[in-house]
Specification:
5 domains; zinc; 5-stranded antiparallel β-sheet; binds ligand 5U1; metal-binding; OB fold (Dihydrolipoamide Acetyltransferase, E2P); 24 strands; Helix Hairpins; ligase; D-amino Acid Aminotransferase, Chain A, domain 1; globular; alpha+beta; about 675 residues; 25 helices; NAD_DNA_ligase_OB; metal ion binding
Length: about 675
């Protein structure tokens, strides 16, 4: 055997044992025997460095620390799933699948792939010619972070695909997580080393993956499970999702052994009950199960609604609950001035973490639940959701328990509290005069998905605002080294780093900038839609409510928030100051000409159209400025009906809504709008 053949054989042998251990959970060697093989390969490669290849098991760890993570745009968005909690919601999902696929009622049951819903961190792995070339976090679904060097350290992730028949380009999606036992070990190690413990396996996995130094990630026992693909080219794929998972298993990926193909609603609910029973004995945390229509062509026909697939749903397990004492209720002032009462609780362990605070939403909620300070209360925590107080054990109410009253002036700035008659939320009227709102606005501005100014955290913002050093986001760009270095716990080096991060944030994107402005009701996804639609900030600022309503997923409430924001001279002033400070982004063309032939029109699609799929019909309507809704109402302008149109057609006729066919739709779209 030549040296090169020897190295290749050792690599294959080691990867086989990685696979046996990390994927099949069936080791064939003792740890000592495995180490011996590994050291043999290391010695061989040290002697013949020209033999080292990127897919060698010795190269999983060893990349140098990164200065920062690089953003990666996902070729196809990494979507989130809609959730179901009650059986009725699963039944409704199954019914929608039936309707969407035009299956006859009661005749055919839809086939599903049912899988555990891992409580981890979604990632994407790209393979070119069978070699792992990139690994990225989900991020906001459109853009993630390049964590290739970290993901390479996970031995359950193949650096080179096994078997044959894999596409030349393959993007695998799945979840990074920690087994519960590994989490316990990791935390006891953290404790021994005097380091901070992680609150739960999911946070530990996330923190471990987002390490700039891959050597740190390598010390964390992260695991991976594949649950699907983001795209593939250069080879045919199986016809069903379950066969695809089998194939991913053959190519070397861990896939959940608990996955199962089931039929109809009965099959789904049976699976949920079974996995619910086995949940506690699984080695990893799950927060529910996922159902996906098994047939991949049917998945495509069903398509997506908003940002979630119509062909899949997560059926979540009920939240966990515990009893504790409501010690006090304090008030938090949010970015938009909303006052949120927060329950201060006697620490209690629930749903895998120790809970000390829980949101109480608003005053009405406290009255409705009849909560009194001093009560024994039930606290619930579901998955990642913020813990909430469910109710008081009023039978155990102490005589000293007292009622809570919302303050009439802001506890931070003493401005009046206002509450609109139609809103449950009370708000501080101080606006950016209120330091609490200013602090939150600055933190939002600097946050990762906004301007991404690393190092500008709670404590610092508190000092900057309290010391009147910074009032608006534009002031951040005027900060100098001396102003920063004089702050508490701010060494010259960190001040320099922060200034560099602020400087770097000047190069941004339009969608980040829009999101950073902190307009009420404008989250990451809406900011992206607005950036794409208008292409430039000035076009967005000049848009009226009608033009805003043409943006997909922008409704009257969002449109009103944007108009309100833009009508406030102070906001426009800050934007100008930010531009003057050198904040720049690339502007593009407006995606849609303002006022297409269907501008302001609301359409509903029903039945199968002769040539257009639903997604294409929807895209055509939206491109002409129309909006597509799923339900017929008096506000609907047209119902576009195809063959086998169901109850929506009946409702349209009942309400006297104009019904048109595909041909008429295309004619409407292609007719130029009348001259103004
Ligand atoms: N097991 C599993 N988890 N999970 C999460 N499958 C799965 N599929 C997902 C997500 C977000 O999304 C696809 C259905 C698009």
């Amino acid at each position: 055997m030549t040296v090169s053949e020897h190295a290749r054989a050792l690599r294959a042998e080691i990867e086989k044992h990685n696979y046996q251990y990390y994927v099949l959970d069936a080791p064939l060697l003792s740890d000592a025997e495995y180490d011996r093989l590994f050291r043999e390969l290391q010695a061989l490669e040290a002697e013949h460095p020209q033999l080292v290849s990127s897919d060698s098991p010795t190269q999983r760890v060893g990349a140098a620390p990164l200065p920062e993570f690089v953003a990666v745009a996902h070729a196809t968005p990494m979507l989130s799933l809609n959730n179901a909690f009650a059986d009725a919601e699963v039944a409704a999902f199954d019914r929608r699948v039936h309707e969407g696929l035009a299956l006859d009622e009661g005749v055919d049951e839809a086939d599903y792939s049912a899988e555990p819903k891992f409580d981890g961190l979604a990632v994407s792995l790209t393979y070119e010619n069978g070699i792992l070339v990139r690994g990225a976090t989900r991020g906001d679904g459109s853009t993630g972070e390049d964590v290739t060097v970290n993901l390479r350290t996970l031995r359950s992730i193949p650096l080179r695909l096994q078997g044959s028949g894999w596409p030349t380009l393959l993007e695998v999606r799945g979840e990074v997580l920690l087994w519960r036992s590994d989490f316990e070990k990791l935390n006891s190690r953290q404790r021994e080393q005097g380091e901070k413990e992680f609150v739960n396996p999911r946070n530990a996995a996330a923190g471990s993956l987002r390490q700039l130094d891959p050597r740190v990630t390598a010390t964390r026992p992260l695991r991976f499970f594949a649950y699907g693909i983001g795209g593939a080219a250069g080879a045919g794929l199986p016809a069903t999702h379950s066969a695809l998972l089998d194939r991913l298993g053959e190519w070397g990926f861990p896939v959940a052994a608990e996955r199962r193909r089931v039929s109809g609603l009965g099959g789904l609910l049976g699976y949920y009950a079974e996995i619910g029973q086995r949940r506690a004995s699984l080695p990893y945390a799950i927060d529910g199960v996922v159902y996906k229509v098994d047939d991949l062509a049917a998945q495509e026909r069903l398509g997506f609604v908003s940002r979630a697939p119509r062909f899949a749903i997560a059926h979540k397990f009920p939240a966990e609950e515990a009893v504790t004492e409501l010690l006090d209720i304090s008030i938090q002032v949010g970015r938009t001035g909303a006052l949120t009462p927060v329950a201060r609780l006697l620490p209690v362990f629930v749903g895998g973490v120790t809970v000390t605070n829980a949101t109480l939403h608003n005053e009405d909620e406290i009255r409705r639940k009849d909560l009194r300070i001093g009560d024994r209360v039930i606290v619930r925590r579901a998955g990642d959701v913020i813990p909430e107080v469910v109710r008081a054990l009023s039978g155990q109410r102490p005589a000293t328990a007292r009622e809570f009253h919302m303050p009439t002036s802001c506890p931070v700035c003493a401005s009046h509290i206002v509450r609109n008659a139609d809103e449950a939320v009370a708000r501080c009227s101080g606006g950016l005069y209120c330091p609490a709102q200013r602090k939150q606005a600055l933190l939002h501005f600097a946050s990762r998905r906004a301007m991404d100014i690393e190092g500008l955290g709670d404590k610092l913002v508190e000092q900057l605002v309290d010391g009147a050093v910074v009032r608006t986001p534009a002031d951040l760009y005027r900060l100098g080294l001396s102003a920063l270095a004089s702050l508490e716990r701010m060494a010259e080096k960190s001040a320099g780093n922060l200034l560099a991060a602020i400087e770097q944030s000047k190069q941004t994107t339009l969608e980040r900038f829009i999101y950073a402005l902190g307009i009420r009701n404008v989250g990451v996804a809406t900011a992206r839609d607005l950036a794409r639609h208008f292409g430039s900030l000035d076009r967005l600022l000049a848009a009226d409510a009608g033009q805003l309503l043409q943006v997909p997923d922008v409704g009257p409430i969002v449109a009103q928030s944007i108009c309100q924001f833009c009508s406030e001279p102070h906001n426009l002033e800050v934007i100008e100051q930010l531009r003057a400070a050198g904040v720049v982004w690339r502007e593009g063309e407006a995606l849609l000409p303002a006022g297409g032939t269907l501008a302001g029109k609301l359409l509903v699609l029903t039945g199968s159209l002769p040539t257009l799929t639903r997604d294409v019909a929807k895209a055509i309507i939206e491109a002409a400025g129309g909006k597509v809704s799923s339900a017929v109402s008096k506000k609907t302008d047209f119902v576009v009906a195809g063959s086998e149109a169901g109850s929506k057609l009946d409702k349209a006729q009942l309400l006297g809504v104009t019904v048109i066919d595909e041909e008429r739709l295309l004619a409407l779209v292609n007719t130029p709008p009348p001259a103004p």
